[in-house]
Amino acid sequence: MHRSGAAMAWNVFKFCTALRGLGSIMILLVLGVVGVTYYAVVVTNYFPALQSGSSFESSLVALFVLLLFHCLLAMLLWSYFSVVLTDPGSVPPNWRPSVDEERGETEPLAGSEYNGAVMGVQQLTAIGEPTNTRVRYCRKCNQLKPPRCHHCSVCGRCILKMDHHCVWVVNCVGALNYKYFLLFLFYTFLETTVVTLSLLPHFIAFFTDGEIPGTPGSLATTFLAFVLNLAFALSVLGFLIMHISLVAGNTTTIEAYEKKTTPKWRYDLGRRKNFEQVFGTDKKYWFIPGYSEEDLRRMPALQGLEYPSKPDLDSQEF
Known about the structure:
mainly alpha
């Protein structure tokens, strides 16, 4: 039994190491798909159609497709690199709870109280005894964990409001970049849908008897781009629907798994407030990867350390 557990731990370690090693490969893969798509839509089909000016209608359609394609591509890449380059949120050094739950005080724990709480949690965790559910401790990081914080084995640290580790963005998705990840999914779905629809007539032409203009290389690129974008549009749609439901319930992928038997959720404050905890209250910033200074100043949830909850469900903690 012990050898089996050790082998499992070793396999998980190798898997996490492999995920870390993907790194730039996944970024290059994403950029490669973007490059193939750009060549098929812009270089091979719609820019030549705009230049030829065979008819006013075809030129207008080509111009519309090119403008929409470039606008969505810019938002997609902005959102993507925002997820890649933004730290998802780490536990600050010597972080301590700002509230003593047992006494109902709102002042941070004093030094002696804080050290005692840490030692108590460490001791109970070490012997397998149940601990105070409001005090969570990470044995790998040797520190207290804020609410909704989880340890990522790939990143090797605790992540604030961790949702999952995404190989496509080579980063964890957490409190500080979850909005950017959702926008990446949103703009990816829109972009791949636009590309699929714009290349559909060219794809259908492959199965007709008429002669298809273009070189073998350009035709192959168009065919490949259509198939790739159709596949991405369908798969991303599923992920987008799932995350929309998670945002509506103010939960994460990890929390949805952990609380699958819990009928009520302490952080579910209603769809609008749940939405604002991810996207902020300023509507001008809802569709761009960023927040207004006002929202960052007055909404602690955007910082990943404090979250408003239902008073009658305060005993819950994940």
